[in-house]
């Protein structure tokens, strides 16, 4: 039986860097050219299977990037196992904002949180303002995962989530999923009734 | 082929389910009920057996279930309901035998069985077994259609194979729709009143931003509530029936009826007329009905206080009709010792019933006893108009002792429950369940905890489990097993408690008597009721939580003396007067109840208690019973399974920012949000808090509704109200004026939406500490920062705002009775508050013009300002000392211990009150100067020495407070 894990992931970053688009590409493999800005926090889930058949289920909170909602962000990154901090490679200021988020996470989030820095809008690399060297150097210094993506073309999107999954502590015992009692009513996709109990590093347990 | 049957079943299934086989069978024996035999082949034993498969949308696995449908007697084959549903899992097995009892095990070999079945033209018995952890359920069914039975068994085998192969993934959650189908019946009987009236959000799982609670569970709670209400709404015929009920409670102290009971029984025309007291409206000074800042609600701030409204409703019903139903509770019917052990005789009951009918006078012939129940000293009697007798059905009784050992009947309750169905309807209406309790709770002042316990104990133990009389009404057919199950007391639409509850007044005996005597008539009743143990128990939720009791305007009903030991009011000198005889009710929102009267009847003097009566007017909506059941079932199907959908809920909120502009103290502003479900599945939404320790919104903000459900395409409105009360203002006055809050609306199993609420708070002099007011550098509205204050050596003696009000009154008021004349006009009060906050001039009284309204507004603003202070003018720790002062000199000496700002306010105020009491009263006035001083002291004492609500200091006697103030005023 394959191992299954479940992790809480939060997306942070300046408004309009493409957080929601990145999630939409990852979860539904879709892209909208015109998306309204997120006023709130969207919840989605996606399960990926690693080479060793281990499955990792991400419970994703896609937060609002607007400054006025900044005070609510801690509510969403508390108990998160991993964070994707997104910047726009065509906006130098968005990397600065990303660095602020990273500092905040390092200070206030769970110490074992896995942080990935993600430069989005790779399809617009002609208008690039942030060089790969600059971002990767910063990521190395801070011990972050780093990658560039394009939510529009899909380039690098799955790779970054896979990289996060591999870096997460996949050492917990396999889930007891098979032992689930018939007619218990636990649904399987996109929904989990025991979300609240997702403490950091906990393994998936659907029962 | 019986296509109708298959179509009928398929119509009950959702699109994800498929009917595989179905056949008609007969029940020979059910595990639960052994009373049906195979010989009766009427509708009652007929069943339809079906095997259904379910295919999940995202995995290929198929799951199966066997459903047994019941046919509604006398209805067509299309009218089916699910009796049981078994998942075809490891626990499921079946066998088929020929009627001559040779068992064939179908599991052994398929081919051979098929051959056997094919040959047989006779009946076959099919046994279905389902093993649960604790028991084995089995059904033996007779089938005649062998061909259909064959395809049934083949499908069952196939699906069981499927289960064995995919056991790990088996889920069967889809089946709950069909197993819950039977619980759908509960949608047509009343839900526990404590539950149905509970705000829905309090029943949901705890949740906060980023940490949703149990969304699936919340969905089902919201959905059931929504369906229950929606089904009623859809089946509402648009018309309603009026039912007049008169209730009464009377502790007869072991006496036999020896007086005419008609005042207690006949409709009360006017509260005051009958009870022999002056209309309470005249006796209550206007200042007394100012909204109480302690429990101020938005409703009271919006206009007339609830007290005035209540009085109005008592008097506006000039034309009083005979009640349709009279329900009377008697206590201490029999005080003999034998009666405590066994009650056999109905002599006393008969005598009282006779006295009731006699008391009804010439109307007596219109009535007949409907039901009665006695438990030792407690008797409950229901008497109905003969013309309405057939409206009442399914009458049930319950009794519970609460006396010695909790079983002997000297204390306890008797109760009657009945269904009311309006007559003369073309359709058959949903009945309204009425429950009446007559209770007698533990005695003595100090036994308050015991009484609270008794209430909860009786609430739990009063259960109605059987029909005492044969059910002769038209509902007998449908009122089968489900309506015979035991039902709790609160499973009613309207619940009345008529109680001798022995709750007393928590004040010294002398104070109670003095307060009752001092004002003409029952003028001090509202003040006394503040110390009433029942009112306190209700307020704290310790007993009778959520019950309504009409404002009391009558004198205490206990204890009257029958001999020389009476006081001037006729009360026994040895027992503190109290309102021990009460009538309370609780009703579902769907059944509006208006109380028309609430009074005691001092003319009836045979007991040491006076009987109390209350008239109720029920407006019963006529709801089509059948339509309601169909609607509930249809809605249930429509909304079921949202929590299992692979689609996410989507809503659109408009706008996402609410700017309230300038926000003033006690000025209500309302804005709305529109919410639309633009997704593909029904959506349950609720507001959640950012942080588990916080409420969903600050105190100055209210959201309605907090929880909701929208079907795809539906939209509704959410109202957001801003209202700054004293408690909010006391905090906001010390914070920067910019208000900014983000509301979080969570869609179950979906997104959190943010709504920002902003506004500019306008500082006010209300709801501050006195000391802070004396150090304000300028009018409060001109302050740049809440921390601005003058140095200690520059502080003013007394707050400018209070002095301005007093100076105005000293200047313009010549006749002190002007202080209380006229209604308080809220618009003038707002204007005066604004002048205090900005430093602007008060509107000046026009010479020659009536300035009564302005005077009333100024004096009421003064009382409100004093009452809004964070700490009372006289600090709580000094209240007990104040009451010890026996002379004017002692009282003045105590001022040395007051904080400096309090002394100055106290001196200015009492000087003003003293001056007022010395004014010459107009000759036509009936009040003298001493009375005026007393009146002023009554109003101001309760404000200046406001009771401490933190529980740190015990409230002191209101009489004592007045006396202390009178040392300065009189």
Description:
Chain A has 207 residues and is of the alpha/beta class. Chain A has a single domain, classed as P-loop containing nucleotide triphosphate hydrolases (Rossmann fold, 3-Layer(aba) Sandwich), CATH 3.40.50. Helix content of chain A is 26%, strand content 23%. Chain A contains 5 helices and 6 strands. The longest helix of chain A has 17 residues, at 92-108. Chain A is globular, with a radius of gyration of 17 Å. Residues 172-207 of chain A have low confidence and may be disordered. Chain B has 970 residues and is α+β, with helices and mostly antiparallel strands. Helix content of chain B is 29%, strand content 24%. Chain B has 29 helices and 30 strands. Chain B has an 8-stranded antiparallel sheet. A 6-stranded mixed sheet of chain B has the order 11-12-10-9-21-20. Chain B has a 5-stranded mixed sheet with strand order 13-14-15-18-19. In chain B, helix 27 (900-918) runs antiparallel to helix 28. The model of chain B is unreliable at 29-40, 101-120, 270-319 and 468-483 (pLDDT under 50). Chains A and B meet through strand 2 and helix 2 of A and helix 6, strand 29 and strand 30 of B. Strand 2 of chain A pairs antiparallel with strand 30 of chain B, so a sheet runs across the interface.
């Amino acid at each position: 039986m394959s191992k299954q894990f479940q992790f809480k992931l939060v997306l942070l970053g300046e408004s309009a860097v493409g957080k929601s688009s990145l999630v939409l590409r990852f979860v539904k493999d879709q892209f909208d050219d015109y998306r309204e800005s997120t006023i709130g926090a969207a919840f989605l889930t996606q399960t990926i299977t690693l080479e060793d058949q281990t499955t990792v289920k991400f419970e994703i909170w896609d937060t609002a990037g607007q400054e006025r909602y900044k005070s609510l962000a801690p509510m969403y990154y508390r108990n998160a196992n991993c964070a994707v901090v997104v910047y726009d490679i065509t906006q130098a200021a968005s990397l600065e904002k990303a660095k602020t988020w990273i500092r905040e996470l390092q200070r206030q989030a769970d110490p074992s949180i896995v942080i990935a820095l993600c430069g989005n809008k790779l399809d617009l690399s002609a208008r690039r303002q942030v060089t790969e060297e600059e971002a990767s150097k910063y990521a190395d210094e801070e011990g972050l995962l780093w990658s560039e993506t394009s939510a529009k073309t899909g380039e690098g999107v799955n790779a970054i989530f896979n990289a996060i999954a591999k870096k997460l502590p996949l050492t917990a015992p396999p889930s007891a999923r098979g032992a689930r009692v018939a007619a218990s009513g636990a649904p399987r996709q996109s929904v989990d009734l025991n979300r609240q109990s997702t403490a950091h590093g906990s393994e998936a347990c659907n029962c | 082929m019986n296509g109708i049957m298959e179509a009928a079943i398929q119509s009950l299934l959702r699109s994800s389910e498929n009917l595989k086989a179905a056949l008609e069978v007969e029940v020979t024996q059910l595990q639960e009920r052994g009373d049906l035999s195979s010989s009766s082949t009427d509708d009652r034993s007929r069943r339809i057996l079906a095997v259904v498969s379910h295919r999940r949308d995202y995995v290929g696995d198929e799951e199966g279930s066997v459903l047994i449908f019941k046919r509604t007697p006398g209805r067509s084959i299309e009218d089916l309901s699910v009796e049981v549903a078994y998942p075809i899992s490891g626990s499921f097995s079946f066998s088929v035998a020929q009627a001559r009892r040779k068992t064939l095990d179908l599991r052994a070999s398929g081919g051979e069985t098929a051959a056997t079945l094919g040959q047989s033209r006779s009946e076959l018995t099919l046994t279905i077994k389902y093993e649960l952890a604790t028991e084995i359920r089995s059904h033996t069914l007779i089938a005649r259609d062998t061909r259909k039975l064959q395809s049934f068994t083949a499908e069952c085998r196939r699906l069981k194979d499927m289960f064995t192969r995919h056991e790990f993934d088996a889920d069967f959650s889809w089946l709950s729709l069909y197993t819950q189908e039977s619980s759908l019946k509960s949608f047509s009987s009343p839900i526990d009143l404590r539950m149905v009236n509970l705000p829905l959000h309090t029943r949901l799982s705890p949740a906060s931003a980023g940490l949703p609670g149990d969304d699936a569970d919340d969905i089902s709670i919201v959905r059931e509530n929504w369906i229950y209400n929606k089904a009623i709404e859809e089946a509402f015929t648009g018309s309603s029936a009026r039912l007049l009920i008169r209730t009464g409670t009377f502790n007869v102290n072991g006496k036999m009826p020896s007086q005419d009971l008609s005042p207690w029984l006949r409709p009360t025309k006017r509260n005051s007329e009958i009870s022999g007291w002056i209309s309470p409206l005249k006796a209550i000074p206007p200042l007394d009905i100012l909204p109480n800042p302690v429990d101020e609600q938005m409703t009271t701030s919006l206009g007339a206080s609830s007290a005035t409204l209540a009085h109005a409703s008592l008097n506006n019903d000039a034309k009083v009709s005979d009640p349709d139903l009279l329900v009377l509770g008697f206590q201490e019917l029999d005080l003999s010792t034998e009666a405590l052990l066994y009650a056999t005789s109905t002599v006393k009951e008969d005598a009282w019933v006779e006295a009731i009918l006699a008391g009804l006078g010439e109307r007596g012939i219109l009535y007949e006893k409907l039901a009665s129940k006695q438990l030792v000293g407690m008797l409950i009697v229901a008497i109905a108009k003969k013309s309405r007798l057939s409206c009442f059905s399914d009458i049930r009784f319950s009794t519970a002792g609460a006396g010695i050992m909790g079983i002997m009947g000297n204390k306890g309750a008797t109760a009657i429950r009945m269904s009311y169905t309006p007559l003369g309807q073309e359709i058959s209406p949903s009945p309204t369940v009425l429950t009446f309790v007559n209770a007698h709770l533990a005695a003595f002042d100090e036994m308050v905890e015991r009484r609270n316990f008794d209430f909860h104990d009786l609430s739990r133990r009063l259960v109605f489990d059987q029909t005492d009389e044969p059910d002769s009404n038209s509902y007998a057919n449908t009122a089968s097993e489900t309506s015979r199950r035991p039902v709790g007391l609160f499973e009613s639409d309207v619940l009345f408690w008529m109680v001798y509850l022995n709750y007393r007044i928590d004040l010294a005996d002398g104070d109670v008597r003095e307060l009752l005597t001092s004002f003409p008539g029952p003028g001090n009743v509202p003040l006394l009721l503040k110390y009433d143990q029942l009112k306190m128990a209700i307020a704290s939720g310790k007993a009778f939580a959520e019950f309504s009791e009409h404002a009391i305007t009558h004198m205490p009903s206990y204890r009257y003396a029958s001999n020389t030991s009476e006081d001037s009011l006729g009360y026994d000198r040895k027992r503190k007067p109290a309102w021990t005889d009460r009538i309370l009710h609780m009703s579902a929102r769907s059944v509006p109840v208006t109380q028309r009267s609430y009074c005691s009847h001092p003319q009836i003097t045979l007991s040491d208690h006076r009987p109390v009566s209350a008239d109720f007017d029920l407006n019963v909506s006529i709801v089509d019973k059948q339509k309601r059941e169909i609607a509930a079932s249809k809605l249930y199907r429509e909304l079921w399974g949202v929590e299992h959908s692979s689609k996410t809920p989507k809503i659109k909120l408009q706008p996402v920012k609410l700017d309230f502009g300038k926000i003033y103290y006690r000025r209500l502003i309302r804005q709305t949000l529109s919410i639309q479900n633009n997704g593909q599945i029904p959506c349950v939404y609720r507001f959640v808090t950012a942080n588990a320790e916080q409420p969903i919104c600050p105190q100055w903000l209210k959201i309605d509704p907090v929880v909701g459900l929208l079907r795809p395409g539906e939209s509704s409105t959410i109202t957001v109200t801003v209202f700054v009360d004293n408690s909010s203002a006391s905090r906001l006055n010390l914070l920067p004026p910019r208000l900014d809050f983000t509301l979080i609306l969570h869609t179950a199993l979906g997104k959190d939406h943010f709504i920002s609420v902003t506004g500019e708070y306008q500082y006010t002099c209300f709801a501050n500490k006195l000391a802070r007011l004396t150090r304000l550098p300028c009018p409060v509205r001109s302050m740049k920062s809440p921390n601005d204050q003058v140095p200690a050596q520059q502080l003013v003696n007394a707050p400018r705002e209070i002095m301005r009000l007093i100076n105005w009154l000293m200047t313009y008021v010549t006749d002190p009775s002007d202080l209380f004349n006229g209604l308080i006009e809220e618009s003038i009060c707002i204007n005066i508050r604004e002048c205090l906050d900005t430093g602007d001039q008060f509107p000046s009284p026009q010479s020659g013009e009536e300035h009564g309204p302005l005077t009333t507004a100024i004096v009421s603003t003064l009382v409100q300002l004093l009452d809004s202070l964070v700490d009372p003018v006289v600090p709580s720790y000094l209240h007990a000392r104040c009451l010890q002062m026996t002379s004017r000199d002692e009282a003045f000496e105590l001022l040395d211990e007051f904080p400096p700002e309090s002394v100055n306010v106290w001196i200015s105020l009492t000087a003003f009150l003293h001056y007022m009491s010395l004014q010459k009263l107009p000759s036509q006035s009936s009040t003298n100067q001493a009375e005026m001083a007393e009146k002023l002291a009554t109003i101001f004492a309760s404000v200046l020495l406001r009771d401490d609500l933190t529980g740190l200091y015990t409230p002191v006697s209101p009489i004592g407070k007045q006396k202390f103030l009178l040392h300065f005023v009189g």
